[in-house]
C-alpha cells in the first residue's frame, strides 16, 4: 500500500507557492488515491487538477505498485 504521508508530501510539494491548498488526501487498501484541493477566493480549474495529477503520477512507479488517482475540487 502506498503511504498516505507520501501522497500528502507530494501534493504539498506541488502546491507550495501556489494559492491552492490540500483539503484531504486518502489512500485505500487497494491504492485508490483521492485528493481534494481548494483555492481561496477562486475555483479550482480542471487544469489545476490535471497538473497535480501528472505531478503525482511522475513521482510514483506503477511497476512497483499499481494505483488509481483522482484529483478533484472541494467546490460545489
Main attributes of the structure:
single chain, 76 residues, alpha+beta, GMP Synthetase, Chain A, domain 3, elongated
Written account of the structure:
This protein has one domain (4-73): GMP Synthetase, Chain A, domain 3. The radius of gyration is 12 Å and the shape is elongated. α2 links the parallel β2 (32-39) and β3 (68-73). The chain has a three-stranded mixed beta sheet, with helices on one face. The protein contains two helices and three strands; from the N terminus they run αββαβ. The N and C termini lie far apart (31 Å). α1 crosses α2 (46-59). The protein is 34% helix and 29% strand. It has 76 residues and is an alpha+beta fold. The mean pLDDT is 94.
What's the topology here?
Layout: H1 4-15, E1 20-27, E2 32-39, H2 46-59, E3 68-73
Parallel strand pairs: 2-3
Antiparallel strand pairs: 1-2
Shape: elongated
Count up the helices. Answer: 2
Q: Give the total of domains.
A: 1
Whole-number radius of gyration?
12 Å
Would you list the SSEs in sequence order as H and E? HEEHE
Low-confidence stretches: none
Instruction: Give the CATH architecture.
Output: 2-Layer Sandwich
Q: Indicate the CATH class.
A: Alpha Beta
Task: Give the strand content.
Answer: 25-35%
Q: Tell me about the biggest sheet?
A: 3 strands, mixed
Ends distance: 31 Å
Strand order, sheet with most strands: 1-2-3
Helix share, percent = 25-40%
CATH topology: GMP Synthetase, Chain A, domain 3
- Overall average pLDDT: 94
Regarding quaternary structure, what we see is: single chain
Number of strand elements:
3
Amino acid at each position: 500500500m502506498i503511504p498516505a504521508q507520501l501522497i500528502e508530501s507530494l501534493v504539498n510539494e506541488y502546491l507550495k507557492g501556489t494559492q491552492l491548498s490540500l483539503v484531504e488526501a486518502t489512500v485505500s487498501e487497494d491504492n485508490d488515491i483521492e485528493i481534494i484541493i481548494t483555492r481561496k477566493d477562486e475555483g479550482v480549474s480542471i487544469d489545476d487538477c490535471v497538473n497535480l495529477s501528472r505531478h503525482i503520477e511522475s513521482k510514483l512507479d506503477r511497476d512497483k505498485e499499481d494505483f488509481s488517482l483522482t484529483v478533484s475540487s472541494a467546490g460545489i
